[in-house]
Amino acid sequence: MAEEPDFFKPHPHPTKARVKNSMFDLVPDAFDEKTIKLTGDQRRVKRPAEEPTPVETPVETPVEPEPEPEKTPVQESVEVEQGQHTEAHPWDHPDASAQSRLLIKGGRIVNDDQSFDADIYIEDGIIKQVGNNLVIPGGARTIEARGKLVIPGGIDAHTHMQLPFMGATAADDFYSGTKAALAGGTTMIIDLVCDQRGVSLIDAYEKWRNWADGKVCCDYALQMGVTWWSDQVYKEMEILTQEKGVNSFKMFMAFRNAYMLDDSELYAAFYRCKELGALAMVHAENGRLIDLKAAELISQGVTGPEGHELCRPEEVEAEATQRATTIADQAGAPLLVAPVMSKSSADVISAARRSGKVVFGMPIAASLGTDGTHLWNKCWRHAAGHVTSPPLRPDPSTPGYLLDLLGNNDLQLTGSDNRTFNADQKALGKDDFRYIPSGVNGAEDRMSVLWEKAVHSGKMDACRFVAVTSTSAAKIFNIYPKKGRIAVGSDADIVIWDPKLTRKISAKTHHHAVDFNIFEGMECHGVPLFVITNGHVVVDEGQLKVTQGLGRFVSTPCGGEAVFGRIKARDQARQPMAVEREPYSGPVAEIQEEAQIMKSLDHSAFMTPVEPSFHTRPPTRGGGRNMQDSSFSLSAKEQDYEGKSMFT
Predict the structure, then answer these.
(1) Residue 73: cis peptide before it, omega within 30 degrees of 0
(2) Which residues of 11-37 are buried (b: 16+ CB within 10 A; e: fewer)?
(3) What's the helix, strand, coil split of the chain in %, to 5?
């Protein structure tokens, strides 16, 4: 009998040993924590410094920038797409791009709700002034943005940097992944902490912080994956929300034996999220059905990457999405479905929202920019390079359909789900598609791909582009207007965007640490000329200048208005009320002995018979089996399918 894959057991191919890529080993080069402390109004606490005195005439002598905290950042030489070579300066270098004072002049500012012409003055990483004819201190660097768009830095709402998964570790760590993100105009990522079953959520959180803090080139926050359920998990969720700056938890309905929760555990986790004011997230696929179909395909000789989509068609995604939205609604919890990969799943989310459910949907760069026909490519490496979960759909109309829903707010935000693996890592599944590490790139190309497919094509305007790439994520994860908006007091995370300039995507020129790009050869309108993160210029006229460790951890508070604004009133309105009536005073039948035994049994026993029968029709008069009866059933005991296949 063919065995289903267990993500934590030794790989069946001895030549592809997993020893070097242990799934949950700590990275040795961990660094100290660096955390942004928030005040009640969601803004970074300012360092003690006197405000400069405005003058009408700029001072000739440049003002010395305020000294940065002592750090030892890594300086890196970067090959940029144009073939130019540049070297990042230390933070305290007099010619460094990361200056404390910047003036962006002459651009058109685009927020999610309006666009207008104005200048922006930045000091100490914060936007200090927005308007025309600004009076600013001397010593500021001026960036000319005339004819360009000035937009909030992108927020990638779902990444998997450095993730140990399926016997390999993602090629992009927190350095290369955030460097690539900045090159594409994304100035903040939200990464998923996803450890194996039985691991303390607190320990997993600390592990990810140690991996990230010394490497990130831009700001980041963390989501927490809940891969098992217990009283310990229940208690640790509160610690994470109250003390660790986490306000979202992701549950999985797939990856059985690794991450998957059953329906009762989903309900408990969703309800706990509601209690804490945290956002519940879900990976929506029917994991049990996937395992059965995958084993069936292997027994039929389908072992290539196409089997990945065939065993998890979009109906499987849609069914799980429907189930997840129902369970979350019964728990009274807001829900974010991530990622959304199919038209059917998107329709479920759209219908749920129209029926009043508090649910959000997040397609990713891959599902918006390409499709699953590549899984049938004759080149195994090309096909395997497109394997991700849920899979890309072979229906070529899927990206356009999802873009239409995104443009009309049936879907709300975008991420990349960036989880990259090189050719030799993908080859772990060369003989069995179930062992292909699942994941694709997207952190660098998300914004350009979306501009090309959505704005340049006329499916959405620039304001909506800002909403789905930045502002909606900031609101949903409760860091708005600190992030996701160009306004006085907001973080200076800004992109100067040229909507007419084009670039061609290629694995030869991208900044990821992976040897493949699913958007290979795509020419995109929309290129970031300047990228500013916390007031530091990291893309300067197209040249990438990054400093390892420049980014900081951003705490995400619970109870955001965008997510929980309706929940309190809804809970009160839905509060069940007992009917007041006279007690029953009539006769009560005596319980027979057999019935008494049945009454004493746990009620849940009636849901799954101890010895489930596959035959539902009565026997014939002669006592034989009714030939109209079916021997197929989906109600067999769970343990029948744990660790083995139905198919021989």
Answers:
(1) no
(2) bebeebebeebebeeebeebbeebebe
(3) 30, 20, 50
Secondary structure class of 14 (helix, strand, coil): coil
Amino acid at 530: F
> From CA 641, how far away is CA 273, in angstroms rounded?
30
State the pLDDT at residue 619.
61
- Mean pLDDT across the chain, nearest whole number? 84
Q: Is the pTM of this model over 0.90?
A: no
φ/ψ (deg, to 5) at 115:
-135, 145
Cα-based distances in Å from 127 to 46, 49, 530, 535, 593: 12, 16, 16, 8, 78
Q: Is the CB of residue 148 less than 8 Å from the CB of residue 500?
A: no
Amino acid (one-letter) located at 113? D
Instruction: Output the CA torsion sign for 471, 475, 480, 483.
Output: negative
Instruction: State how beta strands 164-165 and 154-159 pair.
Output: unpaired
Roughly how many angstroms between the first and final C-alpha of the chain, as a whole number? 4
Q: What is the pLDDT of residues 531-543, one digit of tens each?
A: 999 999 999 999 9
Nearest to 106 by CA among 92, 95, 116: 116
Q: In sequence order, which residues have a C-beta less than 8 Å from that of residue 625 and are 6 or more positions away?
A: 615, 619
